[in-house]
Amino acid sequence: MKKWLLYLLIALALYFFPWLFPSSYYVHMAQGFLYTYIVVAGLNLLVGLSGQLSLGHAGFYAIGAYVTGLCTVAGVPFLLSLLLGVLICAGAGGLVAMLSLRAKGPYLAMVTIAFGLLVEIVANRWVEVTGGPAGLYLPEAKLFGLGLGTVSYYWFIAVIALVVTVLIDNLFTSRYGRTFRAMGNSEVAAATAGVHVRNWKVLAFAISACTAGLGGALFAFQNAYFNSDTFTFDKSILFLVGVIVGGAGTRLGPLVGTIVIFLLPQWVQSLYNYHLLIFGGILLLSLIALPEGIVGGIQRIFKQRNQYSGTPSLPAPDSDGPSQMGSRDGADLNVQAAVMEFDGFRAVDAIDLQIKGSEVRGLIGPNGSGKSTTVNMLSGVYVPTKGKLSWKGVDVTSFPPHRMAAAGITRTFQNLQLFHELTVLENVMLGFHLHYRKGFAANILHTPGFLREESHFRAEAMRLLQFVGLAEKAGEQAAALSYGQQRLVEIARALATKPDLLILDEPAAGASLYEVDNIVRVIRKVKDSGIAILLVEHHMEIVMNVCDTITVLDFGKKIAEGDPAFIKNHPQVIEAYLGGEEVTKLVVG
Amino acid sequence: MLSVNNVRVHYGMAEALRGVNLQVAKGEVVALIGRNGAGKTTLLKAITGLVKLREGEIHFQGKRISGMPAHEIMRLGIGHVPQGRQVFGDQTVEDNLILGAYTKIKQQPRQVREWLEREYTRFPRLKERAKQMAGTLSGGEQQMLALSRALMSDPELLVLDEPSMGLSPLYVKLILDTVTQLRSEGKTILLVEQLAAAALAISDRAYVLSSGQVEMSGAADELLHDEKVVRTYLGA
Amino acid sequence: MLQAIVSGLILGSIYAIIAQGYYITFVTNRTMNFGQGDFLMLGALVGLTTLGTVTSAGMNLFVSVLVTMVVVAAAMAMLGWGLERGAIRPLGHVLSVGWILSTVAVSLMIRNIAMLIWGRNVIPFPSPFGDEVYRFGSVGITKHEIFVAICAIVIMACLFFFLNRSLLGKALAAVAFNPDAASLMGINPRRMAVLAFALSSMLAGVGGILVGPITNTAFFMGATLGLKAFAAAIIGGLTNPLGILIGGLLLGVIEQVFSLYSSAYKDASAFLLILIVLIFMPQGLLGKKVKEKF
């Protein structure tokens, strides 16, 4: 295995480093480099992969250092203290994530800043416990009773860094990494694929806090002494610089980033009076010249993405349709007098809607008549202001999107919401989110069970891509596809959740004529496989040809419902929507 | 007055316009019809500089405007009423109108006062609501405001993007009557409209856009009776 | 206690002035100057030097204060212009976090330069009005604090007038509301972004002059003040200038009240307040809720 050979080489290099540079200064530097790298690698998971932001990682770094340090001082064995420190950091990370769940953008940034500064203040002021700026003296780190000298402590850090690297690398290439990335690309699309976005955000924060705490603890024992001056806001910024300058979301980014943030200051330190100037200047230039970071920029040049799927092998096309696509007990949706208000404006005004079995229902109406709002309500994106939604006898009125998906309702998006950093195949694999069984441990360790599950769902996803006719695009970046193809990928991803009701929001908008034919063919095939469809569409031929029943909205109200022939000749519908003859008469006189 | 030559526009990998040619002469009303996603709005945005061209050129009154940023193109005398009205909801009706004359108000404040009165006469409703926040207006009133706002700079060419969208029939009539009125005043207008029959009824010429290409073009009354147009777009 | 509230209001009004700078750039192009604190520091130091020069040239007190304000405002506006051109615009799209780091990078450079010019030590910034204290019952107010209060009221009034009444302010609001529609009015969104950064930096600079005599000045004074102003902006709601004013005053008062007990509580209170506010009101006190469309 090439991967393991690479790890072995790195391990050897790390092992022999103290002989190559036999000076305690260099070994010390290497220690510093490695624990900084651990923090940056963990922050990269949060910022680069899950698309969140933390300007307070120095806080976790501090918690890791203090908890581990104080436990050891209290007589707890070093290794156990380390474990405790890391676990408490995970808890703190989860807590920060919970606090900031509803906050977005700058508000989220502020929560993390506030957390980091609060920790800093506690570290500085709670002198009786933390020692404050005067510092905290620690016993020598001991492993099973053996004291760790400079070199052996270096080896200890190296082993941990290597393990962290392997685990994080595994995470990147597992379902977890994929889900984090998907969430960072489009939260709402991840949610409609069944991802419980809140929990996943908390998880990302917790993992990232863990590694930051680990780095902090390793830092604390480096000199058997540390003080509160380390844990400043600037430190948090520095970690973030490492992630961004290295290349957020890339696997090698943290390594390169750490070189920049750790070694660069060492080199310019001799120019003490100018080091901020130089550091700031280099940072600014690199942000301008390489907005995607060093590794991201290099990857762009070589146009090769470090994604693991590559070109997947095609499974034999064994059937025309995907196996057990839906759970096959059919749809049973009952909407009663649903109302959706925005600031007093009624976008949807007391709509009743029943969808049963495997029917194809058209939902039409002029722009602004409330179709999109209806779709958003049915998929859980909005919670209706009034009224009731029930699905298979269960009240689902206030279900969020991921629970709707679990119940069997999913959707596509009018303004495409593909995970643009993932390949086409990975997009569809994410749709199977609710059907994966292997947990975190299996994913991060790449156990045989995990590998089996991955290849099973990869084959399933390929089958769905064949179903929509995009098998040969499986390895491409989703953003590189045309509109029509992207819409088909969305349909395939939605089918992967195995829904009983599939909501298609203008699946033909923006597609070329040829692609429209393709999309219609796919819709018919989905219909044949017994999944109920709610189709929102402007192309009248499609609606009239595909739908069993059509519901017409105007000004948020249902104005007509019936089979296509009935709708075609319904005077009110014609006036509101189809031909606008009344309007024409009015205008022309 | 306006000439669009072989214009191509891409969104990412998706091709929205595939080589469109279009001419508008002074004093003409030209309609642009086609389905959702056919590229009508993209074409208007390409003309007024809101999207970048991949290929092709656009000239306005003999001057090349493709490649110029939107705010400079607008200064040359184009008024664009965007789709969905896009009034500045957190400012008053009057402020919206004044912003419409942003490019002129410094040089000719007196003129702008007159134009403001002119628009208030055109839509007395706006005068009644002058101090109200634009976001609190109904859809139809917002459309009046968007139209008046574009007229506040006294443009040579008026570009209208789906003025009937989401409006009740009476408001549609009011807006389209206003277009007819402007036509009789000799304004040059490029009109995108989903209500194809109504659009053709009030224009001189028309282009039918489909999948980012011009499918048909010709005199409006001819297209109004063209079998294919009737079948596809007039819903009969 | 009353004393704490009064000095809290004074301090808070300075936070609010600085925080309005975050608001202006944020609504205009969704970016902020994370180095606002260092801009404030530079304003304070430039102000101190200018004031010294002008007064030693024998100018009358009020004239020299006015001259100082104008010099600082002009210098900071230039700097803001440079910041937008050099560190915001070249990054292209604003969705990334790049602008956070690029503005921090600029602020680091400014901090270093200030250290080279003004040295490493804390420089006392004597208030041009002396430190005479007026007594109103149990409450003592220095002349400088009265000056701060007057300045704050004047600046806020000017700012609100500018944003709500002037054509440029309306154009700025239009860009903030909908940049595409604004450019269809012939408004140049990029020029508005430059204007926003210039204004924001001016506010930081003036804030520096006001805060200087209260905290004294040094090259490292900016970071904490910048963060507290940011906290004020977030508490009030980044999209609402009135909210920011309230947020600033609230923060100032809470800090001063807590500092009656201990200085550790004082620093912590600001950030505890923000956590509490954001848990219950994720958009700040008066921020706008944004409903996303799909």
TrEMBL record, chain A:
<dbReference type="Pfam" id="PF12399">
    <property type="entry name" value="BCA_ABC_TP_C"/>
</dbReference>
<feature type="transmembrane region" description="Helical">
    <location>
        <begin position="108"/>
        <end position="127"/>
    </location>
</feature>
<dbReference type="InterPro" id="IPR051120">
    <property type="entry name" value="ABC_AA/LPS_Transport"/>
</dbReference>
<feature type="transmembrane region" description="Helical">
    <location>
        <begin position="32"/>
        <end position="51"/>
    </location>
</feature>
<feature type="transmembrane region" description="Helical">
    <location>
        <begin position="82"/>
        <end position="101"/>
    </location>
</feature>
<feature type="transmembrane region" description="Helical">
    <location>
        <begin position="202"/>
        <end position="225"/>
    </location>
</feature>
<keyword id="KW-1003">Cell membrane</keyword>
<keyword id="KW-0472">Membrane</keyword>
<dbReference type="InterPro" id="IPR027417">
    <property type="entry name" value="P-loop_NTPase"/>
</dbReference>
<dbReference type="InterPro" id="IPR001851">
    <property type="entry name" value="ABC_transp_permease"/>
</dbReference>
<dbReference type="InterPro" id="IPR032823">
    <property type="entry name" value="BCA_ABC_TP_C"/>
</dbReference>
<feature type="transmembrane region" description="Helical">
    <location>
        <begin position="276"/>
        <end position="298"/>
    </location>
</feature>
<dbReference type="InterPro" id="IPR017871">
    <property type="entry name" value="ABC_transporter-like_CS"/>
</dbReference>
<keyword id="KW-1133">Transmembrane helix</keyword>
<dbReference type="GO" id="GO:0005524">
    <property type="term" value="F:ATP binding"/>
</dbReference>
<keyword id="KW-0067">ATP-binding</keyword>
<feature type="transmembrane region" description="Helical">
    <location>
        <begin position="237"/>
        <end position="264"/>
    </location>
</feature>
<protein>
    <submittedName>
        <fullName>ABC transporter</fullName>
    </submittedName>
</protein>
<keyword id="KW-0812">Transmembrane</keyword>
<dbReference type="InterPro" id="IPR043428">
    <property type="entry name" value="LivM-like"/>
</dbReference>
<dbReference type="Pfam" id="PF00005">
    <property type="entry name" value="ABC_tran"/>
</dbReference>
<feature type="transmembrane region" description="Helical">
    <location>
        <begin position="153"/>
        <end position="172"/>
    </location>
</feature>
From TrEMBL, chain B:
<dbReference type="InterPro" id="IPR027417">
    <property type="entry name" value="P-loop_NTPase"/>
</dbReference>
<dbReference type="GO" id="GO:0015807">
    <property type="term" value="P:L-amino acid transport"/>
</dbReference>
<feature type="domain" description="ABC transporter">
    <location>
        <begin position="2"/>
        <end position="236"/>
    </location>
</feature>
<dbReference type="InterPro" id="IPR052156">
    <property type="entry name" value="BCAA_Transport_ATP-bd_LivF"/>
</dbReference>
<comment type="similarity">
    <text>Belongs to the ABC transporter superfamily.</text>
</comment>
<dbReference type="Pfam" id="PF00005">
    <property type="entry name" value="ABC_tran"/>
</dbReference>
<dbReference type="GO" id="GO:0015658">
    <property type="term" value="F:branched-chain amino acid transmembrane transporter activity"/>
</dbReference>
<keyword id="KW-0067">ATP-binding</keyword>
<dbReference type="GO" id="GO:0005524">
    <property type="term" value="F:ATP binding"/>
</dbReference>
<dbReference type="InterPro" id="IPR003439">
    <property type="entry name" value="ABC_transporter-like_ATP-bd"/>
</dbReference>
<keyword id="KW-0029">Amino-acid transport</keyword>
<dbReference type="InterPro" id="IPR017871">
    <property type="entry name" value="ABC_transporter-like_CS"/>
</dbReference>
<protein>
    <submittedName>
        <fullName>Phosphonate-transporting ATPase</fullName>
    </submittedName>
</protein>
<dbReference type="GO" id="GO:0016887">
    <property type="term" value="F:ATP hydrolysis activity"/>
</dbReference>
<keyword id="KW-0813">Transport</keyword>
<dbReference type="InterPro" id="IPR003593">
    <property type="entry name" value="AAA+_ATPase"/>
</dbReference>
<keyword id="KW-0547">Nucleotide-binding</keyword>
